[in-house]
Design a protein that fits this description.
The complex is a heterodimer of chains A (485) and B (483). By secondary structure, chain A is of the alpha/beta class. Chain A has a domain at 4-256: Amidase signature (AS) enzymes. Chain A contains 15 helices and 13 strands. Chain A is globular. The two termini of chain A are 15 Å apart. Chain B is an alpha+beta fold and 483 residues long. Chain B has three domains: 3-289, no CATH class; 299-418, no CATH class; 426-482, Arc Repressor Mutant, subunit A (Orthogonal Bundle), CATH 1.10.10.410. Helices cover 40% and strands 19% of the residues of chain B. Chain B has 16 helices and 17 strands. Chain B has helices at residues 39-42, 53-65, 166-182, 222-241, 287-296, 301-310, 316-322, 326-337, 344-365, 376-387, 393-405, 411-418, 426-439, 441-448, 453-465, 472-482, and strands at 3-14, 69-70, 73-74, 76-80, 90-94, 100-101, 104-108, 113-125, 129-131, 144-146, 153-159, 195-205, 214-219, 249-254, 259-265, 275-276, 283-284. In chain B, strands 1, 2, 6, 7, 8, 11, 12, 13, 14 and 15 form a ten-stranded mixed beta sheet that branches. A three-stranded antiparallel beta sheet of chain B has the order 5-4-16, with no helix packed on it. In chain B, 40% of the residues are buried. The chains are: A alpha/beta (485), B alpha+beta (483).
Chain lengths: 485, 483
Amino acid sequence: MRTIAEIRHALATRAISSIELTEQSLSRVTQSQPALNAFITVDRDGAIAAARAADATLAQGDAPALAGIPIAHKDVLMTAAMRTTCGSRMLADFVAPYDAHVVARLRETHTVLVGKTNMDEFAMGSSSETSHFGAVHNPWDAGRVAGGSSGGSAAAVAAGLVPAATGTDTGGSIRQPAALSGICGLKPTYGLCSRYGLVAFASSLDTPGPFARDAHGCALMLNAMAGHDARDSTSLARPITDYAHGLDARATTRPLAGVRIGLPAEYFGDGIDTHVAQAVTDALAELRKLGAETVDIALPAVRYSIPVYYVIAPAEASSNLARFDGVRYGHRAEQYADLVDMYERTRAEGFGAEVKRRILVGTYVLSHGYYDAYYLKAQRARRLIANDFVRAYAHCDVIAGPTTPTAAFPIGAKADDPVQMYLNDIFTVAANLTGMPAMSIPCGFTPDGLPIGLQLQGNHFDEARLLHVAHRYQQVTDWHLRTPT
Amino acid sequence: MSWEIVIGLETHAQLSTASKIFSGASTAFGAAPNTQASAVDIALPGVLPVLNRGAVERAIRFGLAVGGSINRRSVFARKNYFYPDLPKGYQISQYETPIVKGGTITIDTGHGDKVVRLTRAHLEEDAGKSLHEGLPGTARDVSGIDLNRAGTPLLEIVSEPDMRSAPEAVAYARTLHALVTWIGICDGNMQEGSFRCDANVSVRREGEPLGTRCEIKNLNSFRFLAQAIEFEARRQIELIEEGGTVVQETRLYDPSRDETRSMRSKEDAQDYRYFPDPDLPPLVIDDAWVQRVRNELPELPEAMRTRLVTEHGLTGYDAQQLTSSRALADYYEAACAALPATDAAAHKVVANWVLGEFSAALNRSDIAVADAPVPPARLTELLRRIADGTLSGKMAKDVFDELWSTPKTTVDAIVERRGLRQISDTGAIERLVDDAIAANPAIVAEFRSGKERAFNSLVGQVMKASKGKANPAQVSAILKRKL
């Protein structure tokens, strides 16, 4: 039993109860914790109570699609009565009085919240190594990273601890760990899922989204998470879409006929691991067999994505993280001489090195005399990148390529080289800069047995099409069903 | 060569919305500390601002009232700095693109009108309050933070440096104060900080370019505004005359010493690292919204002043006084509405009463127009009794005083009870006049020998004999005839 569809069937036929599922999940989490460190907080009592309630709902029939299914939230999403740490000493004991919008939505559908997953501190990182609670390990190779920043959620789903989890994606933080952990991860269109209760890293880029083993599971999760929220001014009021609708339709021989897949030269150049390149090429051949047409496209401005991202994201972060000042909540230094000393010690103690680096960079690029040269120029380049994609979608429906240049790297390999670490996001950050949806699905393994991810990008609000392409691919492949031993 | 003082004002008007600019918490003044601070106001992690449309609407109303242009697209920015009463570590304000651009305020300088240009008006949130002393239950040297005020909507109104004296600056501030309360966007309560000014002051010898300015912060009364400007201008002039130069800085006015003190110089001015707030999309205002606000706009003080002069026949001075506040103007208009006659003389009488007896009584009782015990219809009742000869002006003032102290009574009831009805019966007055002539032969002789003043004395005798109730005009006419 691996996919949400299989679990739903078992729940509906009473082959298993939510309590049993939840107990299984809790014990796997406990067993895996020393090896994977995927969780920061586990809520056994809460999970059991939620499972009991879900079983009661299931017994009445007509339960919501995800009723009774154990899930985990990235520890950057606020959960009432359960601490939310953001992987930081700053918030190590912080308990919010409210649920994030997506957390509340998933509670309402009777999912069972098992706990909160480990992550890069304040979602800043691509390896889940910067957490105050220690690094997350990859279930396929415990010596390697699970990707980041939502590494705990990705590892938890990959290791079968929970069938689905939430993540947040600011520059690739859902797709990159999904690729490195061999599961599916979807970054929806900016504004589709509310950011209310998501602790802000870079407000114009942060996007909550789901992890699941397959596209169908992601669709069910997105159904629960998407929707307008008046508390987030950037949340969009859109007609409700059933993202799972159509996925269940019987497959024809060429289910992707009419779908044009754009292949940007920029995503198939140097610096890509040969095994990754080969797996992606094979996946594209498979998609063509399903009827899709591939077309060459150009995204000339996309090469500025990384520098643009590493100006805008730190700029917003430097301001967003100013509220952690020790005055009202969170960590406060024990000893201090005066107000300024209290600020300095609190923040020096509360934040880790990567967070400090980004606050420094962000403060610099916004400062007087540098704003135009950095922040303003980055915003202009951001528009150019978006224009590239708008032009490209006149010629294709989906853009495909590798999610990351390489498979999972060893823990510690890039920890001292921030630029190398940042380059891991080279294919993923553009979707955040444009606000367009993108997902990563498993498409093969390296000879060492490390998963490889295929990224599918789409135009604004085209999640259904991405899920459709991914689902049809998964009906004829089994990469997504493989599990680490 | 003489010195010229150049003043520009930045005014923070608290907008009269029930809830805050970015949260649903109440803006009511005086609640227990931190009881009106929501998760958004406290800046808990993960919360987001949602713009209060009521605040936007008030800003539009202001922009239209001053003839400024309403930017169809304006942007909220973050002004970043650390302070314990600034919960997010930044203030949300409008920086490069404010909601209102331009506009003017016309002030009465005492020797003619003067037009003061406005640079802009923009929306922003207020910070909280730091309390450094007198915290209950704390023995040590502890500071407290009250975030009730955090997120209160403000309209910052920035003038051009068009004022040339402290009285002009005060006239501007008073006119602006009257306007924002007139159009109902601000309660104008200066003690509670709903209306406060920062003054930019510089001096120059006439004809020279603008001098270096100093900004004096947080002046919350018209008197302090005047005193602070006077002091600051004097300080700068003396400094220059002694060979020094003015340094651009922010200064605080200390009313207890009547002086301004340096707070921080330009050199240690903070770099606020403004950038557009990614949590708030640009504020887009469509024509329909502007048109609706325009349609709902009340008649403005300037237009009403003109109307009172041209249609009611009042003097410019009276019109100015009556339109000094919306409440007083409304009172005057309501009193006029109940008036039978609509000629200039009738309006003049109402204006005299509203600006005279009524305003004096308000001042004595120290209450607002809305709380006056004599409603406008009652004043009109009184004026009717003067017009129909029942009461003399003097008697009416007594009746007014009683109406003020005994709110439930009517004019006629007082007239009846006190037997105040004026004697207008010609026969009765003739008898009183005859008696007076008979009783005062010496005065009559004086009058006849050409002493005009003796006539007034005889009128006085008649009035006294009637206990003040005789119609003075009739008395005068009959006496003249008999003599």
